[in-house]
Structures are given as structure tokens and as C-alpha cells.
Amino acid sequence: MTVHFIGAGPGAADLITVRGARTLEACGVCLYAGSLVPRELLDACPPGARLIDTAQLDLDTITAEMVRAHREGHDVARLHSGDPSVFSAVAEQMRRLDAAGVPYDVVPGVPAFAAAAAALKRELTVPTVGQTVVLTRVAQRATPMPEGEDLATLGRSGALLVLHLAAMYVDRVVAELLPHYGADCPAAVVAMASRPDELVLRGTLADIACQVKDAGVVRTAVILVGRTLGAEQFRDSHLYSADRERPHAPCAEPEPAPTDTP
């Protein structure tokens, strides 16, 4: 049997992919983070499925549950918020499943930064303004950042930064980015993206920290900083330009000539 790491999306139950929902419907065991995954998604699990909230479980216990389910002949849905490819802690679970000889696959999901961009109604890459998006976080006591990935270093690029797990440290974020982006640089924070209690804060590096603290945002939020957030006057992309050479459409097959045969 197989463990399926499924991206549950950013929060709204209907933002799981069709593949993710169908996989969930076929699994007799589902492990989910109760603090992040919407309960409505669990309604898709088959009747009698074993549902395990991993919010208070450690890695050893989570792995043991997946291995046990596999040995009992069950497919396992391992629901993760957002998309498993970033800040999901699936790498350490995969490493342990490899050691236990348990097969697994991954079903991608809608990442939080995409839901935040949708809430802001913004394209994060704008022609002549910015074509690079950096997904990162800030150093914390438990998990330091690798050398060269601190905000001061990343900020030198001027790229649009999307910071996960950083709302609690918004003062530090602003202080480290101000020298590179300037106080007038557009900034935004989206908390609970796509959920009924979604909160969108728009401002600049000069005022975004005050907005975050006044709103009481400390978790389940992404911070976005970069010039593309406020871009209005920019050149149209080449993709749909009238000046772009396009291949001619193939000629339609000529209709057969009528015959005199009845």
C-alpha cells in the first residue's frame, strides 16, 4: 500500500485539487494537522476511515502510524496544508518511510503564497519591474537559516520576497529589509488566506509592522515585500504583443468537390 502526501491547499476546503480529493476518498487512514487542515476535507474520507490528528504528535509517532497502516494493508492520506514542496516537513517523513521500506507519492496543492497573491489581486512577476520571487522565512531559535540565506543577503537582490512563518517577527523583517528596499516599498500581509476569516493588510515597509501588530496577526500569515505589489506603469509582456511573430494557423482541409453520382 502507499502513503500519499497530499497538499490540502491554503485553507478553503474547495481549494484542494481534484486529484487530492479523489486520493483522499480512497484512503482508509488519514493523518492531518488539525490546527491547519479544514475539517470539511475529512468528510471526503471513506466511511470508517481512521482519522488521526497529528497536531500534538511527534515525528516518531506519526511515522509509526503510517508504517502500521501500510502493514495493515491501508492506503494512507497524509494531509499537509498548502503545498508539500515548501515548509511542510515532508522531507523528514519521506526519509523515515524510505528506511522502513514504505512507498509514497506526492499530490501537489495550492501554496499559501499563491492564495495570498489571489487575495491581493496581484501578479507577483511584472514585466520590467520584477521577474523573481523568493520564498523564505526568518531565523528562529529552534531552526536557524543556512549561511547566506538571511534577509539582509536575500534583500540585496531586490526581488519580491514572500516570507512564511514570520508574522511574529515583522519588526525584524522590516529592519533588515529597509536598507535594500526603502521605506516606500510596497508590502502586504495576508493572514488566513482563502478562509472566511481572511485578513489582508496593505502598506509599505514604513507602516506594515504597525498594521500587523494592531491587527494582532502572529501566525498563519505570509508577508510579501517588493515593487511588483504596487506596479501600475509597466510595459505589456511580449507574450500577447501584436508585434510578436506567430505561426500561421494550418490551412483547413478543402471540402471534397461535389460529384454527379447520385
UniProtKB/TrEMBL annotation:
Gene3D superfamilies: Cobalt-precorrin-4 Transmethylase, Domain 1, Methyltransferase, Cobalt-precorrin-4 Transmethylase, Domain 2
Pathway recorded for this protein: Cofactor biosynthesis; adenosylcobalamin biosynthesis
KW Cell inner membrane (keyword) present: no
CDD domains reported for this sequence: Precorrin-4_C11-MT
Keyword Lipid biosynthesis tagged: no
InterPro entries: 4pyrrol_Mease (IPR000878), 4pyrrol_Methylase_sf (IPR035996), 4pyrrole_Mease_sub1 (IPR014777), 4pyrrole_Mease_sub2 (IPR014776), Cbl_synth_CobM/CibF (IPR006362), Siro_Cobalamin_biosynth (IPR050161), Uropor_MeTrfase_CS (IPR003043)
Domain called Tetrapyrrole methylase: residue spans: 2-208
Record's compositionally biased regions (Pro residues): 253-262
Keyword vocabulary terms for this entry: Cobalamin biosynthesis, Methyltransferase, S-adenosyl-L-methionine, Transferase
Family listed: Belongs to the precorrin methyltransferase family.
Protein name in the entry: Precorrin-4 C(11)-methyltransferase
Organism: Streptomyces kronopolitis
Lineage, top ranks: Bacteria, Bacillati, Actinomycetota, Actinomycetes, Kitasatosporales
Gene behind this protein: cobM
